[in-house]
Design goal:
Elements: E1 4-10, E2 20-26, E3 34-44, H1 46-52, E4 69-76, E5 86-90, E6 99-103, E7 107-109, H2 116-120, H3 123-136, E8 144-147, H4 153-164, E9 168-173, H5 176-184, E10 189-192, H6 198-204, E11 208-213, H7 219-226, E12 227-235, H8 248-253, E13 257-260, H9 268-287, E14 295-300, H10 304-313, E15 319-323
Parallel strand pairs: 8-9, 8-11, 9-10, 11-12, 12-13, 14-15
Antiparallel strand pairs: 1-2, 3-4, 3-6, 3-15, 4-5, 5-7
């Protein structure tokens, strides 16, 4: 391995998309239980934007470099991995670079038939959906999942995973075009949230059991209205506002559960447990063709600034990925 590698840094530590620029930096050295991966593709995610803006610092011990998911070739082995194995991996940071280190337990084999670009869009997204929809939300076959932000990377994945698990999916998106795109991805019902009351539509469809919400704000009251008795709301972001008014009586009447989580701060053992669960449950869905990453657009590593600007513009459907 070379002593130096190309990576992306943020000028002055934080700033707009234009602050992202290419630098030369030392190639990382894997520690005990870590593998070194020659990166072929790296997923771009909302938490990367938050980190770039200075709102989401990396966990202790993680690289300052952006990038939470990668795909590529193992060049230094550990755990079950050998040199030459092709993996995708969940990182605490450091994915926007030619080489990245990760806990060997947080890497999974690139599913057969998927490119490195597609595989790079899996870890952060699939781990998030699995943990929040199936573990915290407890979605079961025969239940109904509502997904807000349905054309995002998380949304497109949640639709497919819920359908693979035998659930009904009601998707919401902003605009008729995005609603149609969500329907094309497999949603049973797709709602243009700018033109329809999603709670009313959901109630007409029999209500929902689990809601995956990355919007927050004034969606909360409608979420509760849409829930069936015993329903669960799971928050993974608050793009529409971090505060909401809670009708406690309505929540009690429905015996509803409101929860939420983040993925990045979880400890290494918890991420390893989650990786094993994802491989056991989701990888067979991918092999069966029931789940496949939706790639909106790719950018070379040197254009990470344009990738961030594209994601922030909000017109994407699926994942934005950097290529090396």
């Amino acid at each position: 391995m070379p002593d130096q590698m190309t990576a992306v840094a943020v000028k002055d530590g934080k700033g707009p998309a234009e602050a992202l620029h290419v630098v030369e930096t030392p190639t990382p050295t894997p520690g005990p239980g870590q593998i070194l991966v020659r990166v072929e593709a790296a997923g771009v995610n909302r938490p990367d934007i938050l980190q770039r803006l200075g709102y989401y610092p990396p966990p202790a011990g993680s690289p300052d470099t952006l990038g939470l998911e990668i795909a590529g070739e193992v060049v230094a082995a550990a755990g079950r991995w050998q040199v030459g194995d092709r993996v995708c991996a969940l990182l605490g940071g450091g994915g926007y670079a030619q080489y990245a280190v990760c806990d060997a337990r947080h890497a999974l084999p690139i599913p057969q038939g998927l490119s490195a670009v597609e595989a790079a869009g899996l870890p952060e997204t699939v781990f998030t959906v699995y943990a929040n929809v199936f573990e915290h939300g407890g979605l079961k076959a025969g239940e109904t999942l509502m997904v807000h932000g349905a054309t995002s990377g998380i949304g497109t994945t949640a639709i497919q995973m819920a359908k693979a698990a035998g659930a009904k999916v009601i998707a919401t998106a902003r605009g008729a075009t995005k609603a149609r795109q969500a329907k094309d991805l497999g949603a049973d019902v797709a709602i243009d949230a700018t033109a329809e009351d999603f709670a009313e539509v959901a109630r007409a469809e029999g209500g929902v059991d689990v809601i995956l919400d990355m919007v927050g704000g004034d969606y909360f009251a409608k979420n509760v209205a849409a829930l069936n008795t015993g329903g669960r709301i799971v928050f993974i972001a608050s793009l529409g506002g971090g505060k909401a008014e809670l009708n406690i009586g309505q929540l009690m009447q429905k015996r509803a559960v409101v929860t939420g989580s983040t993925l990045r701060p979880r400890d290494a053992d918890e991420k390893a447990r989650l990786a094993a669960a994802v491989e056991a449950t989701v990888w067979p869905w991918i092999a069966a063709g029931k789940v496949r990453p939706q790639i909106d657009k790719t950018f070379p590593l040197s254009q990470a600034d344009l990738a961030h600007a594209h994601l922030e513009a909000g017109g994407h459907v699926g994942k934005v990925v950097l290529t090396l």
